[in-house]
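Re: the 77-residue chain
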Amino acid sequence: MSEKLPVLSGKDVIKALLKAGFKPVRQRGSHVFLKHEDGRRTVVPLHGEVNRSTLMDIFDQTRLTKEEFLSLIKKKR
């Protein structure tokens, strides 16, 4: 059985994506736009908690699996 997604803030999601090689390219209001050098892009909202459907959309856009993302969340710098 796969692990349940934790409740995360936008800052937590951005920290994990930075570990995966994404870099912030701009911010518009409370949304941060991130890009990977291979062309993958996503937008992370900074207002409150990121809901699960938004998190799943971020997984699709970044081509990361849920397991890969959870390992990034748990990984210490």
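Residues 8-74 form a domain with the Metal Transport, Frataxin; Chain A fold (CATH 3.30.920.30).
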